[in-house]
From TrEMBL:
The organism of origin for this protein: Caenorhabditis remanei
Domain Nuclear receptor: 9-82
GO molecular function term, any single one: sequence-specific DNA binding
Alphabetically ordered keywords of this record: DNA-binding, Metal-binding, Nucleus, Receptor, Transcription, Transcription regulation, Zinc, Zinc-finger
Protein name (Swiss-Prot/TrEMBL): NR LBD domain-containing protein
Family: Belongs to the nuclear hormone receptor family.
UniProt cross-references to Pfam families, sorted A to Z: Hormone_recep
Keyword Transcription: yes
Domain NR LBD: 106-341
InterPro entries tied to this protein: NHR-like_dom_sf, Nucl_hrmn_rcpt_lig-bd, Znf_hrmn_rcpt, Znf_NHR/GATA
Gene3D superfamilies, per the entry: Erythroid Transcription Factor GATA-1, subunit A, Retinoid X Receptor
Amino acid sequence: MAERNRNMAIACEVCGTADNVIMFYRRKNLCNRCKQFSRRITKATTPIVCNCTGECSPSGTCREGRLAKCAEIGLNIFDEKLEKLFKNLMDWNERRLFNFTNSQPTEDLSLEEIMNRGTIEFTERSPSDHNLTSHQWASLQNITTIEFMKGFHFVKFLNPEETTAFIKKTYFKTTIFFMAMASFQSNRDSMIFPGNKDVFPEESVDIQQRHDKLFKRIRCLLISKFIEFRVTKEEFLLLSVLISCDPNIIMEPNSDDGSTNPNLTKKGMNLIRTYYNFHQVVLMDYCRKNYKLNYWPNRLQKLLSLILVLIDTMGDLGKTHSLFQFVESGVKLNKLVDDFF
Ligand SMILES: [Zn+2]
Ligand SMILES: [Zn+2]
């Protein structure tokens, strides 16, 4: 709870001033100016750019400098009422589902190509037309997930390279999570595309027969946990944010040169981490409110364990990717699937 304090010894954690410092506003000590800034910045309609002639500072008029400092101290600039947060997430998800159900798959595009095009224009398809190949479904599932991820509040503060670097690390994982969620919500116990289309390419039937258990695990393991835990819509959405924005995964060293995500600035990474932490707290609060006193920590643990099951599923998918790589397999993967591995 915010508490006014006239004690001159306390300095604003963002700009350093000791004037009008409010203690524990969003868990930080902030001056009134930085408090107002943190409340309004996510609604900014003009780009946040540095206007400093000398060294950039969080205490002047430069919005970029103040924002970078807010990010550095982990100030939650994304705070919003729970009702609004869920409404936003539900809306984004509805749009994602609408595009998945009503759009034509685009040509086979790589992540870079998609990102360079800006907002994706979806072309309409009759929702009853389920006559797509598994490649086309996979492509739509990935593209609609990427559009969903671009909606996160912090993305507006990233430059285009940073946005691509962020999305690149987690889009396919989030896609798989959404695929399993969709199958679960339509009462299936294994991952499948609309119109009963297999999630694996048609030409992989032989390989699938030879590695039956592996493919079965990918299709069923995650969903079996969804069924066991009866995951709610709100929990699914919060988990999808945690999966997309996991700072540890986003900062994971690149396998090719071992560097940590080189396109992300410190500010970008700090913003993602704050967004992630905020949603983790929201998930905890959700559990606390909706489950009995002795049960909610257990519920939270169960939900977070789903992320580990997803990681296992991704590991298994990596194995199938290696199998498909053999020239004689004849399986060609969609660029967005191939790019990820
Ligand atoms: Zn301040
Ligand atoms: Zn500046």
